Fold each of these.
Amino acid sequence: MKNIRNFCIIAHIDHGKSTLADRLLDFTGSVTDREKQEQLLDSMDLERERGITIKSHAIQMDYEYEGEKYVLNLIDTPGHVDFSYEVSRSIAACEGALLVVDAAQSIQAQTISNLYLALENDLEIIPVLNKVDLPSANPEVVSDDIVDLLGCEHSDIIPASAKTGLGIEEILAAIIKRVPAPSGKVDAPLRALIFDSVYNPFRGVETYFRVINGSIKKNQNIKFVATGKNYSADEVGTLRLKQFPREEIKTGDVGYLITGIKDAREVKVGDTITDAKNPTTEAVAGFEDVKPMVFAGIYPVDTEDYEELRASMEKLQLNDASLVFTPESSAALGFGFRCGFLGMLHLEIIQERLEREFDMTVITTVPNVSYQAYTNRNPNEVLLVNNPSDLPEPSSLNRVEEPFIKATIITKSDYVGNVMSLCIEKRGEITNQTYLTTERVELSFDMPLAEIVFDFYDRLKTVSRGYASFDYSPIGMRESKLVKVDVLLNANTVDALSALLHVDNAYDIGKKMCEKLKELIPRQQFDIPIQAAIGAKIIARETVKALRKDVTAKCYGGDISRKRKLLEKQKKGKKRMRQVGNVEIPQEAFMAVLKLND
Ligand SMILES: Nc1nc2c(ncn2[C@@H]2O[C@H](COP(=O)(O)OP(=O)(O)OP(=O)(O)O)[C@@H](O)[C@H]2O)c(=O)[nH]1
């Protein structure tokens, strides 16, 4: 045990975490040349394409230092705020953390939020100043920032470049010297923390764990504490680039477990594994069910594909336990599903996976957060509103509460004004303003989650010219004045276009929605009035004028091939359209409310 080191890498997005992990694997000889590939740890295609780490992974390295052999377990963590719960679990499985800071970008919002998570778990922090090879790097200034933040010495900071390999040896030495060896009770009943799980279509769910006390043996009868289910440990082993089956994984070490579980929902990140006959008495530390933050309807483009969509979603859920869905129906779109996501990125990923892996073309409706409504009839009963159509009628509605978050934004002092006006426009209330240095300011706001899940991040980037980083954490529900804004096309309400909005914004957004829809809905043979309404009251109106021109009109005469080509083109453009009443609505229109400021 004394020669094991468990550590993770924490950083703001794009500060070089995955690249650094690759260098460490290289340097310790954990990969052969043939296995070498950029960003080894990001194994999903999507991850590689998007250049982001979606799921956290673990990998074991051997390293000899001053004549002694060490086992280093690197637990990689996802960088996007949608997956922050996984970061916290990975952190809980370690004793130390490399805090990677980009020498050109300095400390950003997620550097700080991840650092706090690490400090809460008493991790030893090793600050790494990455990307010192960049011409724009500013190592002196950024080192000062790090010293201010951590209260460490300048000499504690390791200058490095994950690109050139500078500093890698020093980092490995620091992991061995500064990160404490795991401490745990070898003789106590098994207690292991699940920090991740991965779905393998052939072997079922692979569970990644860290043994805190005792050991886990092959064929042992084990129990998952939170779900209360028993399994047999069919295979346990250590994780290298490949899996290495072992007879036993001992106290302090990290490994994988295969039990034949076929459904990802049975394995919950943060749960504790214990022995079925001799269970641990210690409480499961900090286990939390991950709750979806954003809800949207997903409908097949072709109504006949509903069953196929259901089958695809069920398969997706087997390997992504954070996806939840229930069937729903919409007057406009027919049968589909209301799905819960961790955030907008997660929504995009699911949509893309449905298309790539299952060949499904789907229509996604306006996303919304989850509200809580109370009616006059029973003001104590909470009604969950995950869909605008679930909101009770205004006459019977007592009050609505919406989720709030604490937003932390770090920006340059020049942009404080812009950032503040943006946040105030988004119904934010400033709660704190701290100058980290004379140039950099940390701002905190209490804001409704609904305002930030959509275009906030892009707007923030624009108003700060890219010099703002952002992070948030939920702070509970607060009462809010919300109304349902409906959209009528050709005098028919299209339920899939309804949105829940704050009363102060409803008129403005209603008007913008009509304008945007006018741009997006193709002209047809007749005038299409577009109206926004609150209840029976129309608050805005636009009209899509009737079409006069036939696309093939120009090709009079016999040029049939050209005519066909044009018609093909028109058909392609129609692919993702939905006929509602007699109006054709393209997919973009369902998301129009998100793009009002484009
Ligand atoms: N010049 C230079 N570029 C680097 C260095 N380290 C990483 N990069 C580049 O910075 C970008 C981001 O690096 P990643 O390793 O993907 O960053 P990350 O923190 O893992 O990002 P997420 O996985 O999305 O959280 C990539 O284009 C890397 O090639 C470095 O030391 N020097």
Amino acid sequence: MDFFKYQGTGNDFVMIDDRAGTFPRTDQAVIERLCDRRFGIGADGLILLQTDPDYDFRMVYFNADGAEGSMCGNGGRCIVRFAHDLGLFDKETRFLAVDGEHTAVVTDSDISLKMGDVSGVESRNGLTFLNTGSPHVVQFTEDLASLDVVAQGRAIRNDAAFSGGTNVNFGQVIDDHTVRVRTYERGVEDETYSCGTGVTAVALIAYRQLAMPDPVFIQTIGGNLRVSFKPMNGSDSQFGSIYLTGPAQRVFTGTITR
Ligand SMILES: N[C@H](CCC[C@H](N)C(=O)O)C(=O)O
């Protein structure tokens, strides 16, 4: 079976053209092995591109642990680049993911992905929590560089307040419109270089708590992203027209031999 490898700001994915629908998608051990950085290809997740009667394509996303995940923003940007590379559309696309419809626009340098609307921001156990397609906690800190993201992220990830777990993002304000972010990802169970739904969550909370204006510029370990949004219904915790914008590239192709 052929595979492709894509990365978006260092969040990397095994990408498979599964338009024939033959990939063993219920075999969690196979997916986990393909994502393993020692025994497999190595990736933060695996994504199937499938057909859909009403859309350009359908995205099916699995975390590195092999389980089907909630929405993945960087994976969404990567599969848009993949579909574009396959010639499935010209500049603009409409596709279906686990959280519903997404649209995206492709330029040479960037993919701009429309994210699902955000319906609320909660405080759980004193932690700021919201769902941007995946569940996220957002915390701001003064010293991001020396933070033990894995230890602190894992403790919050396993907090009983979050049934099913949560991803955990730590942000440090760099200037009036820029936040640097590090993320502990559920399903990878480690820090990743970037998390698209995570930086989206951070941008919205930077607006809500710190009055940071739209768009918010984000620095991750793996590169820079931009999040634009519109508050909805006169609320500072509901958002629409959310766009996640930044680079996504094919890195290599290969063949899975067993
Ligand atoms: N890396 C992804 C997030 C995956 C979410 C996943 N870790 C989960 O909560 O199931 C992103 O760019 O949005």
